[in-house]
Amino acid sequence: MWASFCLIAISSAAGALCASVPHKLTLVTPQVVHTFPNGTNMENLAVRASGQILCTIITAPDLYQVNPSVNSSATLVYSFSGYETVFGIAEVQPDQFYVLAGNASAATLTSVEGSWSAFHVDMTSFESSGVATIDKVADFPDALFLNGMGLLNLEEGLVYVADPYAGAISILNVNTGAHYVAINNSLTVPAAPFTTPLGVNGVHVFQEPDGPLYVYFSNTAQSLLARMPIDATGTPIGDAEVVASGIMADDFTFDSDGNVLQAVIGSDEIVKIDPSTGTVTVIAGSPNNTELRSVSAAQFGRLSNETTTLFVTLNGGNLGAGGPVVPGAVKMLDLGEALA
């Protein structure tokens, strides 16, 4: 998320690095769900049980709802006054979402330390009233830049929050507002091969069948996806390991078999990663076209007919990334056999 915010002078290198990723013979063609006006850059998304898509904006402090169909409409849910941008989003209880907002400038590539906050977005009455209930959960006075967010423990109301500039993952209790840094290691910090300050980016939890509970996280600067075994409180109980490398990774999700569906912002692709083997397979997009230009996040649909439908956000390649620029958008991919 927000990786193209810091991709000046490295986009061509990223393309070369990602060019070696093996491709399937037939790639999935994305369909447009909604295209935003020029200059609007998408960041992240979450899918409601109703199928509606909530998505965040980099270039404005806005949260939108988008209908999950081809060429559909978008409705502004809320604009966070006093903030410049909205990043991570996660659902904890049904229709109870949490987002990260802060002050950062795409024009100057800067983030205001300590300006970041987490908000509760209650969507239960939105369809009937057109109004979501918004409450601040916590301020982060020491945060450099808050980006990815992922559910850790539903019962306890715990979520992970990634600070890529600090190279750290915090745990936030959305019920109390308490938070603390839980993970900070050599795989979360920004480091080679790229000079972007974006270290740990997307962060999500996955339970292996009859196996360990893992936190997975991407690192944009180090171009990798890693995982670490944790307990139910989010405390690490083992060392972090690299699952896949050579991909300038942004946010991601999991399919029903535990494969990772990874947005690769550096090469405008969605790849499937098998955590047991590290095999990386491109299933959509290409560095040679703009259909998934600067794809930043991915989530599966939740309706009965959407079990293989992947929704993705595009920031469109703006913010100084170099190369072609297209409007930010939400698109969908019918993965079908690509998940087989």
TrEMBL record:
InterPro entries: 6-blade_b-propeller_TolB-like (IPR011042), Hetero-Diels-Alderase-like (IPR052998). Residues 1-18 form the signal peptide. Gene3D superfamilies: TolB, C-terminal domain. Keywords: Signal. This is Quinoprotein amine dehydrogenase beta chain-like protein.
